[in-house]
Every structure is written in C-alpha cells, then in structure tokens.
Amino acid sequence: MTPPAAGPLAVAIQLSWFFLTVALVLAFLRLIRGPSRPDRVVALDVIAVLVVGMIAVDAIAHRQPVILDAAIIISLVGFLGTVAFAYYVEKGGPH
Amino acid sequence: MTEWVTAILLLIGTTFMLLAAVGVLRMPDLFLRLQTATKAVTFGVVFTFLAVAVHFAELGVSFRALLIIAFFFLTSPVAAHRIARAAYFVGVRLWEESVVDELRGRYDPQTHNLESGKVPDSPSPAQQPPSKSPQQTEM
Questions:
Q1: CA atoms within 13 A on the CB side of A28
Q2: 8 Å CB contact of A90 and B71
Q3: Helix, strand, or coil here: A11?
C-alpha cells in the first residue's frame, strides 16, 4: 500500500525516516572510528536497534504488520551477537 | 485522533533513537557511550513500538509490538553488562575526568571474580598504562 500522502502521520513518518537515517550515519561513524573493540560492539548494537526502529516505521508507513516478525528476529540476533562479541572481547583484548 | 497519537509517539521514539546515536558518537568514554546506547535506545524503541501498537490496534500486531518492548527491556541491560564487564577486564581506559572507579583492586585478574572488602591498592586495568595509548579516545 502507498504511504499516507498528507496529514500529521505523513509528516511524522518523513521526519522519522530522516532521524533514523542520520542516527545510522552517526552510529556508523562510531563503528569506523571506535578506538577499541568494545566501542565497535556498542556501535553494532545500536545499528541493530536502529534497523528495528526503521522496520517499525516502515510497517506504519505501508500498513504492513507482517514485517514486525522480522523486527523480532533482528532484535534477537542483535542481542545474541552482542553477547557473543562480548565473550570474545573478554578472551581477546581491547584491539 | 489515532493518527495524531501515532505521529507523536513515533516522533518521540525516533527522536530518542537519534539522540542515542549522537551520544554514541560524542561521549568521551566507552562506558558513557554504553549507557547512552542502552537507556536512550530502549526508551526510543518503547515509544516507536507503542506507536505501532496504537496505529494498527489489532490484537496480534499489538501483542507483537508489546513483545518486542518486553524483549528489549529484558535483553538490553544484559548486553550492556556483558560489554562493560568485558571492556573493563581487557583494560579499556576510563575517561580521564571520571571521579570514581569502584571496581579498582576488587577483582582477581586471573579468575575475574569480584570481591568486596579487599584493600583497593592495586591499580585497575583501566588506569595501568600511564602513557597515552592509541586506544584512548580522541574526543
């Protein structure tokens, strides 16, 4: 379905896309720059959550609630990936 | 009416996600970045999925949205704790203006067991290298 053309919800959806895109860029800058390895893990965690938020905005914009299942899966995989990365950081070292 | 409520909840949620990303980029220290990434992001996820639940207003969809919220409340503190513990043990340095390091000297460097009551005289791994190492943040 097409997104709503006018009204407060259309404005809110456009602003939400803008905010989330800028947030993804900022988190990606921290992923590139991050001086230690845990910094990169934190940035990846934030990126996973931002993708989940983008899925929520897309579900509202196109009235497609089925892709919320993908949001559940991505949040689960993000959590498991963060815990696994933390385990290997603890074994490996800061760099 | 529902449209207004959805729009306001969505804007609150995505604004807090943006602020969390700004904090992750701008904070001076891994641990400060971590608390921004945990608390503000969880707040943003809660409001974004409340917007989803209000917008669709069906039982199945709203249940899924509330399930994601509950999942984030359960997992995000655990993940933050794992990262912070691993980073402290491998010697990520604190911000030089940090005022207290309550873990200093209170854990066994070999077994990583924490103890209370030990005299905190041994330096923490976060303070050990006196010279500036390249892992020190530049911001």
A1: 8
A2: no
A3: helix
CA distances to A28, A41, A48, B104, B106 from B91, rounded to whole Å, are: 24, 15, 26, 11, 14
* Mean pLDDT over the full length of chain B: 80
> Which chain A residues have a beta carbon less than 8 Å from that of B87?
36, 38, 89, 94
- Alpha-carbon torsion angle B78, B83, B89, B91, nearest 10: -150
- Residue B101's contacts (CB-CB under 8 Å, 6 or more residues apart) are B94, B124, B126, B127
- Give me the residue label for tokens 């009204």: A7
* Inter-chain touch A94–B87, beta carbons under 8 Å: yes
Lookup: tokens for B129:
């290298």
Q: How many CB pairs under 8 A join A and B?
A: 172
Complex ipTM: 0.87
Q: Do B14 and A19 touch (CB under 8 A)?
A: yes
- Three-class SS of chain B: CHHHHHHHHHHHHHHHHHHHHHHHHHCCCHHHHHHHHHHHHHHHHHHHHHHHHHHHCCHHHHHHHHHHHHHHHHHHHHHHHHHHHHHHHCCCCCCCCCCCCCCCCCECCCCCCECCCCCCCCCCCCCCCCCCCCCCCCC
Beta-carbon separation of A75 and B56 below 8 A: no
Question: CA B53 to CA A81: how far, in whole Å?
Answer: 27
Q: Lowest mean pLDDT: which of A65-74, A80-89, B70-79, B111-120?
A: B111-120
